[in-house]
Amino acid sequence: MLVNGVPGNTLSIRDRGFLYGDGVFRTLCVREGRPQHWPLHYQKLQNDCEKLGINCPDFACLSAELAGLMPAHPNAVYKMIVTRGLSVRGYAPAPDAEPTHVWDISAIPAYPDNCRTGVTLRLCALRLAAQPRLAGIKHLNRLENVLAAAECTDADEGLLLDTEGRVIEGVRSNVFLMAGDRLITPDLSRCGVAGVQRDRVIAYAREIGLSVEVRDVELAELCAADAVFLTNSVFGLWPVAQFEQCRWLDLSRTVQFQVLFEQDESWLN
Amino acid sequence: MLVNGVPGNTLSIRDRGFLYGDGVFRTLCVREGRPQHWPLHYQKLQNDCEKLGINCPDFACLSAELAGLMPAHPNAVYKMIVTRGLSVRGYAPAPDAEPTHVWDISAIPAYPDNCRTGVTLRLCALRLAAQPRLAGIKHLNRLENVLAAAECTDADEGLLLDTEGRVIEGVRSNVFLMAGDRLITPDLSRCGVAGVQRDRVIAYAREIGLSVEVRDVELAELCAADAVFLTNSVFGLWPVAQFEQCRWLDLSRTVQFQVLFEQDESWLN
């Protein structure tokens, strides 16, 4: 673990990341000493920082730190957290705040066998609030995800709707529907987190000639889809076999996207 | 500063308060060695913990810590933060997580002279998202307040509406309207933070025979009110002299509530 480039696993109780969740993060896998899609993760981190007015550490700095950590942890989950830094009391951010950046490393989880072949998805009772100013950003205000995750412990993943009942995302994943030659994924301009893998899937789908629709998605559409799958930078792609009373028996439709998660650095690094 | 009862000013980067804003807090003043309304603050802290399923440290434990800190800091702002504690990776909380509790102490701020006689309030562009599961709770997901505070640096306080345009609160305060013999304050069941001073004002208003209405409040009502004031456990009561183009020249209507903030422990401790 590194805190502002220095080995350590603590930070100040005056850090705004702790006090207000005033920061952003990204989670990526390192496999065999190769960080998966690090430039894409950095780009998202930087965009999210910019939306919140946080000074993002530069790519060279974070890349050098990452390179220094990998020899000891060549196969692991790496989490990069950037906060607005230390605070005097009060919500108003000082414009000259020096950001805090933290690398946290943990083991790559072992998922149940069914995950490659089809997961169970459950509807969360919690509905995501619409906040356009924070939508899409992977920020540190994640209480909605915490409460939703606590609800869905008996399924592989929970499905989150917004307050209007539209499909938004999984608790820790983005969601895709396939219907004929169309790939559909929810618009995230009101709420939700726009993951790196979501961008990769969208770009790849266009490349292979699918029609891609990023728009509002009703729950009825998900239930009627030919296939549904979830993406996340740690677990990769999970086809959905079951959502409440809906079943998908033929999961072959999603196989074409597995290439994005199995061929290492091959496409859209 | 105390972290889990031990002098210190750092905490683990694996603390869920940092990772997800998975915690709650309260801020109170200690004046001349007397903590202002500590039992009420504790009650709120405990209620908020319960709503999030966090095990709140007990009153005796926190009171003893507070008593130990006061001799060295007899006039200060005390912030008590309780988080769900350490986390393994992932949003789902472990049911047996041992909570983290932190005391942070800072100087009582010196406010501009106008604050006692009438502050300027400005409308924030940011609208509060409706999330009933988190409404009222003083939790650590405070990015909306951070962004709103950054907008309103040229006024004493910012006024926050919800996405439907209803009046909810100040960036760091609760808001009250007076109209005839009625005291009106926004319902906080969709969003907003229910402060200790809000409860005290409501209880006192009933005691002195005012009709109290806790309900949805339109912005037009605020503009038409006989008086508007703000409350907060650190600054106490601020009468509003100006909100955008609205002016309140006679601020005597709010004087009756100053007793709650000036007579020390006298009422509803």
From TrEMBL, chains A, B:
Cofactors (names): pyridoxal 5'-phosphate
Keywords (A to Z) from UniProt: Folate biosynthesis, Lyase, Pyridoxal phosphate
GO biological process, one term: folic acid biosynthetic process
GO terms for cellular component: cytosol
Pathway: Cofactor biosynthesis; tetrahydrofolate biosynthesis; 4-aminobenzoate from chorismate: step 2/2
Protein name according to UniProt: aminodeoxychorismate lyase
Documented EC number(s): 4.1.3.38
Reactions mediated catalytically: 4-amino-4-deoxychorismate = 4-aminobenzoate + pyruvate + H(+)
Recorded family membership: Belongs to the class-IV pyridoxal-phosphate-dependent aminotransferase family.
